[in-house]
């Protein structure tokens, strides 16, 4: 009862006219930032943080604004992923696997509406989870040490490897390329320059934005030009803007399962939406059995990653609020907002600042309703992107992408690297190498290395530390099962078919 009373007080704070307007503005700005390739929630929140502080907003209003932007970015990232095959951020990478094929089939409207409802479902389930389980989940998250985090990331990579069927060697090669590129730059432990070829611009590594823009936007532009040369038929629109009842019934349990799983993964500091979306997509693909079109345009392939990454985004607030540990890069920026107001997040925050905490939680409910109501009518506008002729769309995508790349460091070197990565991505896609393992390997590479080194440092180099806890052992078993299980099942099916013949 006490929790419900506090939540009601939070709604009293979040539902004032001023805070409702702030949340609405944040939702709109977040959606715009999210759909622009290369920006993402971290940049959106970081840009608005000094503005919110300069406007002298009270702390609860400033946090409501930043959380609305955060939620809006998670919604917006799916738009360019579905329409242009260019994910707005790392969490939307998995959405491209089925979202863009659906758009090419003329089902961009239903795909966008399904992703909006899945995002809403994931965010609402996660917010309810924050209300009910935040302190308990914070204690559970502490049980994950460096060894457990390393094995969790191995599990994420094995999930994606299990998706590719007979293309496992190609998936492993793509993943290894991503892992290799993640090692470029200064070694944070020894200070040694690695794979920089005496180029100072590579000292900080290759930015994620450069990789994702190159692999998706630049390679997609090259594929567009190739298809334009072959005189393809234009993408036909179905005329439908909403999914039908059959599509919803097919995806409803996918959304709920992915929302719950994404929330628990998001609670782990540093795990993030990338791992959540990849693991949930892999899990749903496997549960669908043989009767699915994952990778070719399946609504469940849009619903699973969108529910998971939005649930993970909200789940990452749990360690920030309860432990003072940022659950993601974006929540790290939001912690900076709290410190600007002399508020220290941690175990006593719920007791010391109940107005701020519960006002923030209540605003998440309100912001997600706003985003759903805002995004559904805008689908008609978003779908118009597909009506733009290729001769105009290609330079438009190129210009937006290059601006996103240039904005990282403000130098032309990143533009050159982006084009080279794009050429590599084009070659991989022409040879039917999957791009998702490449991105996942790059995103997780640095975190895997750091957690492996920490684990080995704690154990004085004993490799057994990676198998020393029940959590780690369970994750190893799950990783092996994810990688080997589908192939064993196919072997048994083929033997059964031969025996019956």
UniProtKB/TrEMBL annotation:
Keywords: Membrane, Transmembrane, Transmembrane helix
Transmembrane spans: 20-51, 63-84, 111-137, 149-165, 171-193, 205-225, 259-282, 320-343, 355-378, 390-409, 415-444, 465-485
Domain DUF112: 20-440
Name recorded for this polypeptide: Tripartite tricarboxylate transporter permease
Organism of origin: Thauera mechernichensis
């Amino acid at each position: 009862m006490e929790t419900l009373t506090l939540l009601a007080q939070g709604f009293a704070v979040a539902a004032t006219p001023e805070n409702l307007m702030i949340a609405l503005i944040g939702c709109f700005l977040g959606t715009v930032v999210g759909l622009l390739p290369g920006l993402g929630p971290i940049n959106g929140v970081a840009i608005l943080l000094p503005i919110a502080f300069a406007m002298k907003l009270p702390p609860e209003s400033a946090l409501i604004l930043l959380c609305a932007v955060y939620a809006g970015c998670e919604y917006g990232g799916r738009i360019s992923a579905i329409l242009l095959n260019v994910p707005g951020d790392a969490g939307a990478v998995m959405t491209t696997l089925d979202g863009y094929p659906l758009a090419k089939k003329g089902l961009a409207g239903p795909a966008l509406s399904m992703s909006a409802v899945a995002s809403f479902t994931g965010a609402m389930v996660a917010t309810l989870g924050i209300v009910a389980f935040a302190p308990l989940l914070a204690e559970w998250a502490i049980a994950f040490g460096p060894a457990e985090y390393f094995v969790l990331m191995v599990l994420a990579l094995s999930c994606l490897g299990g998706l590719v069927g007979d293309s496992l060697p190609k998936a492993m090669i793509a993943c290894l390329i991503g892992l290799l590129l993640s090692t470029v730059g200064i070694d944070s432990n020894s200070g040694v320059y690695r794979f920089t070829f005496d180029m100072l611009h590579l000292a900080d590594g290759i930015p994620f934005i450069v990789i994702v823009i190159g692999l998706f936007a630049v390679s997609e532009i090259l594929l567009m030009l190739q298809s334009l040369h072959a005189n393809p038929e234009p993408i036909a629109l179905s005329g439908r803007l909403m999914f039908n009842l059959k599509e919803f019934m097919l995806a409803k349990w996918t959304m709920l399962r992915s929302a719950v799983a994404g929330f628990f993964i998001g609670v782990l500091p540093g795990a993030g939406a990338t791992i959540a979306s990849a693991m949930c997509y892999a899990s749903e693909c496997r549960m669908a059995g043989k009767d699915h079109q994952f990778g070719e345009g399946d609504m469940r392939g849009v619903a699973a990653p969108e529910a998971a990454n939005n649930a993970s985004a909200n789940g990452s607030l749990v360690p920030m609020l309860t432990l003072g540990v940022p659950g993601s890069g974006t929540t790290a920026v939001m912690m900076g907002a709290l410190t600007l107001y002399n508020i220290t997040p941690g175990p006593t925050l719920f007791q010391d600042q109940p107005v701020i905490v519960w006002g923030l939680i209540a605003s998440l409910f309100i912001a997600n309703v706003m985003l759903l109501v805002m995004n559904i009518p805008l689908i008609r506008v978003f779908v118009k992107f597909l009506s733009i002729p290729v001769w105009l769309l290609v330079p438009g995508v190129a210009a937006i992408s290059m601006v996103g790349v240039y904005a990282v460091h403000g130098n032309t070197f990143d533009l050159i690297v982006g084009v080279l990565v794009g050429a590599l991505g084009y070659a991989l896609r022409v040879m039917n190498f999957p791009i998702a393992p490449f991105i996942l390997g790059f995103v997780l590479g640095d975190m895997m290395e750091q957690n492996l080194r920490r684990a080995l440092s704690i154990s004085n180099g004993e490799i057994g530390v990676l198998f020393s806890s029940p959590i780690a052992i369970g994750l190893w078993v799950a990783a092996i099962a994810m990688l080997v299980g589908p192939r064993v099942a196919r072997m048994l099916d083929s033997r059964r078919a031969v025996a019956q013949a």
